[in-house]
Amino acid sequence: MRHYLMVRPAYFDVAYSINPWMDPGKPTDAGLAVAQWDWLRDLYLDLGHRVDLLDPVPGLPDMVYAANGATVVDGRVLVARFRHRQRRGESVAYLKWFAGHGYRDVRQARWANEGEGDFLVAGPRILAGSGFRTDPRAHAEAAAFFGLPVVGLTLTDPRYYHLDTALAVLADDVIVYAPEAFSEDSRRRLEQLYPDAVVASAADTAVFGLNAVSDGRHVILPQAATRLMAQLRERGFEPIGADLSELLKGGGSVKCCTLELRHGGEEH
C-alpha cells in the first residue's frame, strides 16, 4: 500500500505561463479538471492505497500539482521553495499541513527545490534534477537532510522542466526515462546505474507519458502513451491509462498530482 497526498483542483486555471505547456490564451474547464482528478484519486483508493487531501487555496491554481510541494522520506519532510513567485504561497500550506498531521521533522528547503518534481526516490538513492527549477545546491541539502545519496541529473530541454517529466521510477531498481532530456554526463550516469532501464519514445514523452506513478506493480500514466504501455507490459508491469488532458494544460499529469508520503506520521 502506498500513501499519497493530493489537492483537488477547485481553483484550477492557466492564468500565467511558467513552463512550455502553459498557454493562458487557451480556455480551461475547472469542472472537467476536478472530474479527471476525482477519477485518479478513486483509482488509487480502488488499488488499495491511502489518499490524504490538502485543501486548495484560492489564488494558487497550480496547487493541484501536489508532487511539487515537498519530498517525504521516512517521515522527514523537506517542503519546497518554489522558483516562481506565482507558486511560493503553496509552501505555507504544505508546512501547515505536515505540522498538523503528526510529522515531527518538517522544514522548508533553503535553496530552490520543487519537491518530487525534481526529487524522485529510487530505493536506496534519490535521483535529483536541476537545470530549470531546482537549484543544484538543493541536492546537497537534501542528501544531508534525508541521509541518502543524491544523484544529480541535469535537464537541458525546457520541455522537460522537472525531472518527473523526463523520468519515472517503476521499482527500486527500474526506471523509464527520455535520454534526450539530459546532459551527456547525466545520460552516462543513468546508463551506468540502470543498464536495463526502459527508454521511452519521443512520441510518448510528447504526451507527458513519463509523468507516471508506479506502486511497483501498477503504473498509472497518460493514456496516449500507447507504446510505453506496451513496453511496461513486456517488463511485467500493469499499465493503467489516465485521461488528465485538462490538467495537462498546466504542464502536469499523473505524477504531478501525486505526492508520496513515505512512512508518514500519525494524525493527532
What does this structure look like?
With 268 residues, the protein is of the alpha/beta class. The chain has one domain: L-arginine/glycine Amidinotransferase, Chain A. 24% of the residues lie in helices and 22% in strands. The protein is built from seven helices and 15 strands. A three-stranded mixed sheet has the order 2-1-15, covered by helices on one side. Strands 3-4-5 form a three-stranded mixed sheet, with helices on both faces. The chain has a three-stranded mixed sheet with strand order 6-7-8, with helices on both faces. Strand 4, helix 2 and strand 5 (105-108) form a beta-alpha-beta unit. Mean pLDDT is 96; it is low at 264-268.
CATH topology: L-arginine/glycine Amidinotransferase, Chain A
What sequence of helices (H) and strands (E) makes up the elements? EHEEEHEEEHEEEHEHEEHEHE
Q: Report the count of strand segments.
A: 15
Q: How much of the sequence is in beta strands?
A: 15-25%
Question: In DSSP terms, counting alpha (H) and pi (I) runs of 4 or more, how many helices?
Answer: 7
CA distance, first residue to last residue? 22 Å
CATH C-level category: Alpha Beta
GO biological process, one term: L-arginine deiminase pathway
Protein name: N-Dimethylarginine dimethylaminohydrolase
Organism: Amycolatopsis tolypomycina
Keywords: Hydrolase
